Amino acid sequence: xxxxxxxxxxxxxxxxxxxxxxxxxxxxxxxxxxxxxxxxxxxxxxxxxxxxxxxxxxxxxxxxxxxxxxxxxxxxxxxxxxxxxxxxxxxxxxxxxxxxxxxxxxxxxxxxxxxxxxxxxxxxxxxxxxxxxxxxxxxxxxxxxxxxxxxxxxxxxxxxxxxxxxxxxxxxxxxxxxxxxxxxxxxxxxxxxxxxxxxxxxxxxxxxxxxxxxxxxxxxxxxxxxxxxxxxxxxxxxxxxxxxxxxxxxxxxxxxxxxxxxxxxxxxxxxxxxxxxxxxxxxxxxxxxxxxxxxxxxxxxxxxxxxxxxxxxxxxxxxxxxxxxxxxxxxxxxxxxxxxxxxxxxxxxxxxxxxxxxxxxxxxxxxxxxxxxxxxxxxxxxxxxxxxxxxxxxxxxxxxxxxxxxxxxxxxxxxxxxxxxxxxxxxxxxxxxxxxxxxxxxxxxxxxxxxxxxxxxxxxxxxxxxxxxxxxxxxxxxxxxxxxxxxxx
Length: 489
Description:
This protein is of the alpha+beta class and 489 residues long. It folds into 2 domains: 303 residues, no CATH class; 63 residues, 2-Layer Sandwich (Dna Ligase, domain 1). Helix content is 29%, strand content 23%. The strands form 6 sheets. A 5-stranded mixed sheet has the order 3-23-22-19-18. The protein has a 5-stranded mixed sheet with strand order 13-5-4-20-21. α3 crosses α7.
């Protein structure tokens, strides 16, 4: 009886909206099959140890900057899958595609005609005075008019039918390798479950990514040379850089492997001599990409890359200058972008956001600081963030001082209760908050592909709302379940 209670969704006790439950508290259809299987399991201990071993052998690691205990560690993995129905996925997929199309149109617009600014849909100063607005790429049109080749859209859920976009990632979104490897590990650990469910595949993502990169090549080359540009082994996402390069069958390079010739083309040093590069899937931020054009002290990029890209000799994916579109102060205007460029109503909602550069918003936030989540406009990875209800008096006062000194550096949002999902803990199954990051690939302004799966990040600390791996979060496999007629019970 003890093991049956320990691993049973029927006896599992959520404390807020949990994705295993319908509105009236019953198990959802997609979780009923899993619960019937789960109740027959006596222990996951051996499977957990095997998962750890697999992750260690594959080398699925990440680095935490500033941590003294070591360069890398295994990302925590939860063996309880997150299961979404095809109808749930249809809404997410449509909303992500819509959003990425609008954001790409916005980037095309603000670096050329600036119609959205001229019509006062978005304040001009918010864009043109933004530190992420890159004047160096004004009037440059990338191949196929695509800026956002690879996007990661962070989504949270608060009820069976309510999904919010928490933020957009349009520069160098990471984590897709964990999505793919989580699926690989789960299929090894629990092959019998993949016979019970019609789980839609995601292993074609590297193929779709390569198609996207090939489509971005200058002059519509049939067989362009593609490379993945990494900052090197000490980057927190180096495993992913190497993984994706290997999966696509392309070269992984550092800035030192590249040079720009007198013809302004980019070349890669090989044992057979210099070979031209046509497409660079860069995993380096704009500021470090080219010391000639941006940060002169950067040793990560390659001198002349910007010049080569501007002359159409090489395509850089994602495009330079995308940071202004995923800036947290610009985020509140994305629904207006969707209506302006696509003439559609947003499918996925935005979280209500207070822009602290506005006097009234700033006043309200300072008066209600203990109730809100405050984020740096250029922050990431869960750093530089205040969760008011969880903060101490000292932390609240520290943030109050920071906000007063530079209000434009911050935005604030209500503290939403993210949905929970069952996770494996020492005491058995326990609810933990989750978010979702689908990955969108754009080959043209009208063609966006999202593989039917996502990176689910889990706040493994009890009650925590911070899912970032750098802040103690983990990951789990995300199953999108299609028609069940062809599966075996």
